[in-house]
Amino acid sequence: MTPRKRIRQVPEVELKRLSPTLQKNFSIGQNAIQLPFHAKGALGKLAEKLNVTSDHLLKARRFAELLSDKKSLELLAQERNKQVTPLNPGKQTARPKRKKKDTRLSWGHVRHLVSVADHARRHQLLKDAVRLNWSTTQLIDAIQVREGRTVRPVAGGRPPNRPQTIEEEMLRLQRLSEKWSALYQSRLIEKPSQEPNAPLTLKDRITEFLQGDGHSASVSRDLKSQIDGLQHALTRQADEIGEIATAIRAWQAPPLKQPRSKRK
I want to staple 47 with a disulfide (CB 3.0 to 4.6 A). Which of 18, 27, 57, 226 is the partner? Predict the structure, then answer.
């Protein structure tokens, strides 16, 4: 029989500094470590008993295995700088007091950190997530770039549920297009010409980089591959969207009048 993995003894004082959600998931992970990894049946029963999915249980197990050292726990317990959205100078209004938000890293961060196998890279990502106040999405992006997971021949992951009607299909496509526009062209900048010091939009930042630093010899091979992958994806989407846009314009155009047939 394969011996059970020895559980690292973690001082209670370190665990109590974590958020309640992380404390709960660390405890789940410690329970999972007591079972052999190949004992799928026993792990499944434990997941059912703890009311979590098997995937959740395995990620919690890796949490207890990979992030239970003192340095990692200190970073996970650290309060981060709160991101503040600047108010419009012409509309300074008092905001109601709200309950203090927990700025420590969340379970959403941890469940993606444990997917990084290399210890040094995982610890650096953890440090950067705390220091730079990354959201879960920003951490996912950083992991994909540093792990070289960004260039793929086709989109991965579970395919989305197929809409049941043409109305649902068009509505979903509209929402995705609006989401893309919100990211691509920042809504904070309605009249860039009147705001010379306003932050650049995503389009401007990428264009500026490609025209300047993008030609530098120091650009990594991974970044060049990612640029090629982005070009391929955008070109393919532009062609597909162009076909739909052409069909919509044809649908909106008034029908051509058919010439009257001459009576015999």
Answer: 57
Do residues 130 and 75 make contact, with C-beta atoms less than 8 angstroms apart? yes
Looking at this protein, which amino acid is placed at residue 135?
Answer: S
DSSP states of 156-213: -SSPPPPPSSHHHHHHHHHHHHHHHHHHHS-TT-S-GGG-TTSPPPHHHHHHHHHHTG
Say how far apart CA 178 and CA 183 lie, in whole Å. 9
N- to C-terminal Cα separation, the chain: 97
Rounded Cα distance between 61 and 77, Å, is 19
Q: Which residues of the chain fall below pLDDT 70?
A: 1-9, 11, 82-100, 150-160, 185-199, 257-264
Query: Hey, what are 187's tokens?
Result: 């809504």
Cβ-contact 30, 63 below 8 angstroms: no
